[in-house]
Every structure is written in C-alpha cells, then in structure tokens.
Amino acid sequence: MKNQKMYEADDKMISIIRDNYNILQSLGSFGINLGFGDKTVREVCNEQNVDTYTFLAVVNFTINGYKEYDNADRLSLPTLLHYLKASHAYYIDFQLPFIRKELVEALDETDNLARRILKLYDDYAHSITNHMKYEEKMVFPYVQALIDGNANTNFDIETFSKHHVQVDMKLKELKSIIIKYLPSDGLHNNQLSATLYDIYNNEEWLTHHSEVEEEIFIPAVRNAERKLKQNDVSAKISSMINQTPNNDEQLSDREKDVIIALVQGMSNKEIADHLFISVNTVITHRRNIARKLQIHSPAGLTIYAIVNDLVDISTVKL
C-alpha cells in the first residue's frame, strides 16, 4: 500500500520500501543494492554513488506525483541517465519476456483467439522495444555528450520531447480482450488472473517511467542545454577578449603620433613633414596600424584615439 508522504534524505531507506514496495525495481535501476540495514536515504545513496537529490525527486514523483523539486540545477543527469538505461534493460530483457511466458502458460496455443492474443502481445513488445532502442541510440548518447560538454548541435531534447508518446495502446487492447472475451477453465482462469495482475503492474510501471522522462529527465536536459549554451557564449566572449590585442602595448610611440596626426586631419605629406619622416614611412606606419587595430577608416581611428586618451575630444572636429 502506498504511503502518500514526502520522503526526505534523513528518512530510513527501508521505511520507503515498507510503505511502497513497488519502488524495489527503481532501487535496482539506480544501482542501489539491498542489505543497507537501517541507514538513511542519504547514507545509502552516498555509499552507492547515487545522487540523493535526484533519487528523491524520482521516488517522490513516482509515489505521489510530486514534481515541484526546488532546484532543477541540482538534478544529476548522470544519475538520471543510469536510471533510465537500467530501466530499459529491466523492461526489455526481463519484464517483456516474463509476461509473455505467463501468457503462454495461461493460454491454449491451439486456440485461434489465444494465438491472436500472443500476436497482439508480440506486436506490443516490438513497438515498445523499438521506442526504447531509439532512445538508447539517439537520446542517451546525446545526453552523455551533453554531460561531457560537447553535445551534438544537430539534435536537442525538444526533438525527442515532441515525439515522446506512450506506446501502450496495444497493451490496453490486450487486457480488454482477455477480460471480455477469453473463456477459460478454473486452472487457466487463475493463471490468466495472475498474468493480468502482472500486466496491470507492468502498465503502471511503464506509465511512471514515461512520466519520469517527461517531467524530470527532459527538463533536466533542457537545463543542461541552456547552461552549455551560456558557457559557449561566455567562452566565445572570453576568446574574443583574449584575442583582442592590447593596443597600447602593441602600438609604437611613432604609430600613436601618426594616429594623432591623422585625427587632426593631416595628409600623408603633412604627417611626414611634421614627424620628419618620409611619406613611404608614413604609409608603412598606417598599414601597421590598420593591421594591429583592424581599424581602417579615419572615423574609426578618431574613436580609438579618443577612447585611448591619445587626443582630447574637445580638440577633435567631429
């Protein structure tokens, strides 16, 4: 029976299981092994390398639908990624074959309707497996790259979110057919009832899995994408700053004299006479100034001279 309460880091892990036995599989997906005695959630998570905040976010959400966690930045993408990968392995490698085995034992395979039910289940298993394999091929590697700081720019989580739909309609149809139309004797009825019970639990688990992806995983990935973009912008700005030359150091005193003369409206000949150098030397200085500053126009040089205190703005004809 579920206990509708909020669990916290200092609650004992065994208390959560006693209140909500159906989270046992979630423990395995997080990589948490049993045998933890009376330790708290925080102690167990720390010992088994699981992020406590993320564990509680998932557990409280799947138990009572609580999703108002107070800090999305604290959600651990590596923990969520491990949880989802392990959940896929559990569902594809164990749960789907287990339910099929139960169906085979509960049905008479010589009966045409029974064969159709198995075919319907196989179609469902194929659909859900393809859905999860897509995530493993496209989404999970993208998120891992995002964690590593070099995500693929040709994909984002919105692409996945727009097409993230539950694929359990065949399972609902399967339950309906078994309940409404499949006759059975006492023995097979017990087996079918037990199988239906497992299918309902299986359906509930899959719903929770899909909701965790939609309500916790996808928002966490969006947050990581946003932070990575911010870091990229900061890095580009920093790179631009680092690549911008320290103009005062790179310009020689003679080049500064040439800039001042240009700002004052002198021609190359006038500058040469003023500084007692040749016209060719003036031209060479101007070429070096343009290369160093990446400024080619008189207006640009005027602004540079004012900003760098080479001239007083009151003396410049703007």
TrEMBL record:
Occurrences of domain HTH luxR-type (ranges): 244-309
Pfam families: GerE, Hemerythrin
Cross-referenced SMART domains: HTH_LUXR
Keywords, sorted A to Z: DNA-binding, Transcription, Transcription regulation
The protein's name: LuxR C-terminal-related transcriptional regulator
Record PANTHER family: DNA-BINDING TRANSCRIPTIONAL ACTIVATOR DEVR_DOSR (PTHR44688:SF16)
